[in-house]
Amino acid sequence: MSDHTQPKPIRNEEQLAAHISRPFDDVAIERLQTKLTPTDVVISTFPKCGTTWSAQIAHGLRSGGDMSFANLGQVFPWLEMGHFFGQNLDSTRAFEPALFKSHMELSELPPGGKIINIIRNPGDTLMSYYNFWADVLFDRDEVSLDMMARQFFLLERSDAPRNMFQLNYYQHLVDFHTTEYDGPVLFVAYEDLKDDLPLAVRRIARFMDVDLNDELQAKVTHQASFEFMSAHREKFSEQVPNGVMEMVVTGRVGDAETGLSDPLKEQLQTAWQRYVSPRLGYADYAELRAAIGQEMQDSNARGA
User: Fold this and answer.
1) In sequence order, what are the beta bridge partners of 247?
2) What does pTM read for this prediction?
3) By three-state DSSP, how is residue 115 classified?
4) Which pLDDT tens digit goes with each residue over 121-142?
5) 24-49 CB burial, b ≥16 within 10 A, e <16
6) Mind listing the pLDDT tens digit for each residue in 241-267?
7) CATH 3.40.50.150 fits 13-302, yes or no
């Protein structure tokens, strides 16, 4: 929980832009250039698309449901920024396979591993992202949702400094679906995690080559439920210089319908038509989710 009585470090859009313009240090760049092992698993998503949720599933699968960690970051470190948060990347190798998190595009990840990418409705992602930073990084009456959209979501990233926050949601999504990676990549929709968590657990287990019996599936599914993670939220929070970032908040789907203004909804759809439709052919997020969901159903039917 952040201290709401203290002034926040960002007071306007100019400061917001400056905050996300700092490039990676040499340690981060080196880690993104270090080849992964064939069994290493990286969960790389656009921010607020289910990174922690899917990591809880993946860690439960590889560990038999271990919950002994004080904080998930101890066993699920940032690949590129673990050193910034005081995380030891070797700590994840107490379990097999090793498990890392990232927000980088697929083309920027180290070669050789297994990659899990979770996608989420863009409007819901934006709202969750704003609520995540609000009251810790800035006050809501000083930094608006529109400012957040311009700097954290819609910013043209082609010539931007390399870091994990100066991202464009749509470029990030297209990169994951067009990059030829030299290891397997699994796509899962956040909404499908919500609608059929046991099915997602089975698919992630197969991807990780984890032997899954009924007992383990039930345990991992329970420990990845919103109710369980909410009851143990201190294990999933992230300490930052200005407070504690809560990773388990609402787990809701559809907040954008009432939470975004009509002009902002139009901006998001225009961005989809600019970046995504010409490259991937999907008219909107619903079409992409349907395609990923069908593959999820098909792979379950194949048992592969």
Assistant:
1) none
2) 0.91
3) strand
4) 999 999 998 988 887 788 899 9
5) beeebeebbeeebeeebbbbbbbbbb
6) 555 555 555 567 888 999 899 999 999
7) no
